[in-house]
Amino acid sequence: MGELEEYLYHYFGYSTFRNGQKEIIEDVNEKKDVLAVLPTGSGKSICYQLPAMMNEGMVLVVSPLLSLMEDQVKQMRARGFKRVIALNSMMAVQERNRQIQHLHQYQLVYVSPEMLQNRQLTAKLSRMSIQLFVIDEAHCISQWGHEFRPDYLRLQSIHKQLHAPPILALTATATPDVQHDIMSFMGMRDVNKHIHPMDKPNIAFLIERVNHQEKKLDYISSLLSSYQVPTMIYFSSRKEAERISLYLDEKVEGLRVAYYHGGLDTQDRILIQQQFMYDQLDVICCTSAFGMGIDKQNVRLVIHYHMPAEVESFIQEVGRAGRDGEESISVLLYHEHDRNIPQRLIDSELPNQGLLQEVVDWIFHRQSIPIHEVESYIIEKTGNETPWRFIHYQLEQIGMKNNSIFLSETYSKQWVLSQLQNAYQQRLQYKISKLLTMEQWVLQDEMCRREALFQYFQDMITPPNGMCCDQCDFRWDHWKTNRTVNNQEETASTWKNKLAQLLLQETEYEI
Amino acid sequence: MFTYILLDSICKLRGERTVSNIYHLLTAKKSTQTIQDSYIYQLTNYFGIYKRLERKTFQKELRHLYDQGWIEVYQDKQVVLTTEGRSVLNGFDHSQIYLNGMKYDNHALFTMQVIQLLVQTCTHIQQHHDTFIPVVDDESVQQKVKEIFYYYQKDTNTILYHLYQELTRLFEQAPEPLGHLFTDQLTTPRHIGSSKIQLAREYGQTVHDMHCQLMNLSHFLCFAIEKDSSVSFLKEIVPHERNMNLPLTGSAQKTYKLWQKGHGLEMIASQRNLKISTIQDHMVEIAYVVKNFDYSPFLSDHQLQWIANQIDRLQTNKLKEIKESLDDHISYFQIKLVLAMSHQQKEGVF
Ligand SMILES: [Zn+2]
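Predict the joint structure of the above. Result:
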């Protein structure tokens, strides 16, 4: 065993690295700037977690995914590594300030990009020795990334403020343009690039077009009646996830189904995730909120009940299938009205014309206005943070932001409004073009689905090691897969027996 | 059970308050007004039992009651039961309801979660599963479980044995579904517990009913642990310390501290940069929960007696009516104080 493997075994209990991890960690340990494009589920996080554990100095991870950060902190603590913390702006102010004061006690610190606007935090960080500056979901830096986040554009100046430690930029999906954006924006020099193909040879692609929405239900229930395997079904609405979950529960004999979305209690979310993890559930009907934090190896089937708004999300979600390398299948169900759903999502992510006008009127009327007032107004009005991030960034670009207030004095209202409207139009067009690309993939029937899907990201595709797609060679009866073992224990008849079974089951052996 | 709670609340409010008051009561939006109302209308049991209830859902449920013809809504959003609603309410068996929101509030959930996490931790460690994702996220619960675990020197057999003995004893005295519900939620290495939504389906109830059932379960636990002298292990690990935190709003809590130091109302108001009427509201809140409240700076004995007599005679909680039956120089503040104190005498609060 090499030295790195020994550390890996010691901290994580694995004796070998997964594809690409080792090379990245070696570069990181040599203090090089690294850009890594690794498919979901390939263990991106080990690339900075291991250096955090084995080296001197703190590792700072910037990530926009709150729940993912928290899951990782939990998992690391569960493994016995306690010097890890996640800071986010949802915390109570006092609690946060206390944690910032004690930050030097931690070796691995996760922060959300918004948090880096907190001056107390950046002041504290700049006094500490940071060995590695990790940018997770680095595609958010790029205007051409599907999830552009204006907050990410502040990372450049913050990185300088922290005395420019080595950078590790990580993402699961990045076209060559986006890769270029990331490196040039962060001023990364002599970058060691680790670009791994995103296609997995063990996933077959299938598109099922229906002429009636309810046919989707028939399709899924007959599919799951024949294949009771670990399955994730993605929906773009919570309501639908719930409805179909209940339907399948009633319709398919013996199938264990549950739904999961951001509206559940924390405890219910943990329980459902764990049940799925341990094969107590066969099927999860979920929104995109599910899946980021869990590392389930044996998902066999990923079904998209609705078409996602862009190819990147689709690839990421499909990538949760077959992490153990066994043959797995992606099914996308499509009805021609489905294009309206992502269209609606796009609308809700961008501020509409009326809101832009309203905000500009307001700022010019007041002349100077605290930023947080605008923030809470927009978030309350739209029920979504994305429009606020958009407006905030645009006003900052224009130069109206002055510390914590927006100032209107030196500008013409008409000009500001037209700047915002242009930016809005551009973003809208971009999002719509993303949606069209997705739809094009769904509707094309000339090419191999695998080749068509990955052509934007890589030149070559890895030849599949099982079936390829419904254009090439796919046949359900050629799919060799095993039913999930239903390891349900005999349930005791009374609660008292059950309680004894749960609490005292091992005691006899140990006495 | 949720329907019962809604109907019961509406019944007790006697049409003197709006539906919003019920919503605030259930979600424990701790405002002085909510707390005062819950005392006045004897609704302290339901205080804060559904903190995550969304207003939309609440309105939908009320709509349902309305469609059933069980309630009537007046123009100004006050609600009353119809005759039918009243008979539905009377049809419910409420002998198995242990809810006591004002008393147990956050302690109930805390107790429940400590026991759940303790079971998960001990069964995992005992069976050599050293890494697991805790089913409870709350830091204070995790901290508590750690303390217990180390206090008992990681002796999982002893902890689990005590838990089994005492929980069995408590649930044997409980109405039937509670023992089931409790065990169904437990997580061990062999089995992850059921979620609220799954339990609701299993028992053929709505999620809201199940929420109330589970709250009832946790309140039952608190109640039984407190009452049964033989469950010494549970008493030790999740004691309910009385009056450790008076059920006051945070702001009233601060006022109370200054008041105890001997500061007068005007002084507190100027120190805290608040209106004097706000500080007076805090005093009313305090008068509901503090024993032997010293009313002398605000009321003479004579005034107290007089106001109390009027309240008795009128049999109403409507401030305006009471005020009109008294002299002009008696203030609303004084009337509210007397209402608060007379409530304490009746209920023997805490
Ligand atoms: Zn193909």
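The two ends of chain B are 26 Å apart (CA to CA).
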